[in-house]
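Lay summary

Proteins are chains of building blocks that fold into shapes. Our project writes down both the chain and a compact code for its shape. Here are two examples, one after the other.
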Amino acid sequence: MTRTSVAAGFVAALLALTACSSSSSSGNSTSSTSAGSGGSSATTASGPTITIKNFAFSGTMTVKAGAKVTVVNDDSTAHTLTDKATKKFDTGNITGNGGKGTFTAPTKAGSYPFGCTYHPNMKGTLVVQ
């Protein structure tokens, strides 16, 4: 009977730990949801988003004058998005693996060439309307 009591106690403790583990798991899922909503808020919060992936820029390259633009870096290394000609905008260093930076588009319509300070082969053009 002593072994049965010990076994029952062990099973009860194991069930309690499993319940805690499930609770922790739902906490992680909340974190994932938070991270996911952070990603969607970047797209919807303040407007256009430009993504850096495979050492290239993509996404919304045409924006309204004065728009807040979010830049998401999906590469594993740091990048910038920097106005090369007029120096009117610069995200500064954006860390890799989902790091984000923002800048405000110029208030004057036109085409603004930009690139990455660290990687001169990365180029794009922001069109401001």
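And here is the second example, written the same way.
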Amino acid sequence: MAELLIKNALVLTFDENALTGGMIADGAVAIEGNRIADIGDSAELAAKYPGVKTIDAAGRIVMPGFIVTHTHMPYVLGHNMPVDFSQLHSFWDMLQKMGWEWLEDITTQEGVYAATRYAATKLLKSGTTTVCEFVEGPNALPGILGATAKAIEETGIRAQVGFEVTERIPGAHILEKTSVAYADRGFEENIRFFEQYPSGNGGRITGRLGLHTAFTNSRETMKKAREIADRYHVGIQTHIAEIPRVFVVEKHGMSAPQILEETGVLGPDVVAAHCIDLTDEDVAILARNRVNVAHTPMTNSFGGNGVARIPYMVEQGMNITLGHDCFFTLDISEYLRYAFLLHKAHNANAGLFPIFQVLDWALGNAARALGMDGEIGSLKVGKKADIIILNPDSPSPIAPCSALSYFDMTFQGRHVETVIVDGEIVIQDGHSTKVNEDEVKKACQEEAKILWRKTGVQI
């Protein structure tokens, strides 16, 4: 028997995708436990389920929660950090100094916990219900994933989680020295997590092995990553071609897709972030291995890394999803809109991409990338009840004929009113039901101050 009924809404199912998904003008969704029990006309479902708890969503949009396939939630500790940009002359400087020395290498478990609670709450409040979290912080081992999981448990978001496996030595320049021992520590952290949150556990948290890059790892480490992922029945998340292709070729004698294919890493269970500097051959390798791309246009722009060849990848039949590194705000509307606009401008082609295609990147495509398309990504009877309710602030009517255009023209995260994850209301009237938001923000700010002081910032 249903326990919650959301009625009188414009219901967008996105099943099987944004373009062909159902739109019910006066629709309702019934929830039983953590599953969707029924979808249909409001009057019919109200009569079918009398006396159950009801949310009157008149004037609202009801739809599946968004899915982000690449996040680094502790990176919010670096938001607005005063940075000496005179030290940053290239992407290598930004990565080595801003990314590693000034953030990851001085991250603590306390910082990870505080930042993840803050980021997860903000993500939920703007409509993201699932993330694929790639945790980095080599000096916070062992136990850093425990801090991550604690924050995720408390906030109510759904997540696949893994720690970066890398041979990078904190404090040493990546071009001068690496160590397999650091990769082994990363494997150990992941394995502990997989044993605590085994694949198929039915909960909100599962594992996904983090393999940092082909550039920061040896062939042996890459092979081991595939062996461990297969042993624990988890997918792999990695960064591919964020740095110029030539650096990987100089190290391995071949490109990142080539060496990752040779070592057996690639497959349909791989989520690859960035994928910028790729040749036609590189794209062909990723396509034939059915690798999923986590497109991160805002981060790529910030690093001056270029624009990923997403139109070409789509032509090759690749599964494109939407990711970000938790730079900038955590409002999913900004990432959707930037992805919607960037390729039009870059290619001087207004047809790239229609909004329904971009929405799929953060819904059905993302669910498939995470191996969860039978569970999330659309509203369908039997799927997990991961649902958001939007109260559009729009100058024009929001109806079935205009609903998709709303997401490119008008949608903002502040329009999200209610968020349900796994059948539980975790955001109500725009506020968390799980944590004290003021306390979460204060704790994150205090950890940011601690981290900033380590870089010499007087605060």
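What can we say about the second shape? The chain has two domains: 4-64+384-432, 66-369.
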